[in-house]
Amino acid sequence: MSSGFISETEIANQRQRRQEEWEKVRTADQPVEAPEEEYDPRSLFDRLKEQKDKKEFEYEEAHKLKNMIKGLDDDEVEFLDLVDKSKFEEEKRKYLEESKELNEFRRRRECLEEENLEQRIKNEIKSSKPSLNSSR
Question: Is the pTM of this model over 0.85?
Fold first, then answer.
């Protein structure tokens, strides 16, 4: 079992590894020696609590919209059904009215065509009768 203490040689090894990693990623304008890790004087409990609070906040932000959405109650559903039904009835009424008007239009057009055809036939008959009589 570990006692939780770190020896001086382990600290030196850690610094050496950090310095080697620093040399790999260092640019010309940065210092030659690797910067020391920042010391956090807070207790472990405080640091862990901060991390936990941060994760909880991120989770709540991600799920905030989900919590805002609620289902419809019976009155709202009833109202929406009523609106749908009235829209359907209005569309049905318009469709029936349009089809009635179209049928009336077609019937009138047929009547006019028949009258026109009858008129042409009468005109042809009138025009053809004199020519038949004169040729005899």
Answer: no
